[in-house]
Amino acid sequence: MKPHRTPLASVKIFQGAHELTVRRLKRRDDSFTLHYTISPPLPDAENDTPVLLMIEAVDDAGNEYPDWGGAYGTADDGTHTDGSISARPALAAEAREVHIRITFLRGGEEHPCDLTLRTTKTGP
Fold it and tell me: pTM of the full predicted structure?
């Protein structure tokens, strides 16, 4: 079993009906990915209006990072949604924080949430 990590951020979404918890920020050579959970789980697209996610980000050095896609699904135990969403390019080496807006699209309505994550400086 993996040890539990301290969440990077948590925020209420959908007028407080759900909680988004960012568990991990993973850097890649060409992008970065947020891994998250949402409790209670998002509605099942087969039985209700689907929810789509979009990410926009800007770091404290002024670099912008557009959406690069993601995926989510209900956890096996049904208690929450597990997901990931990516933006590109890779986070700049000089970035110390990244300001993120995740917009949830459901039934023609936008439900944005904003958060700021600290990044680990890389490079010299």
Answer: 0.88
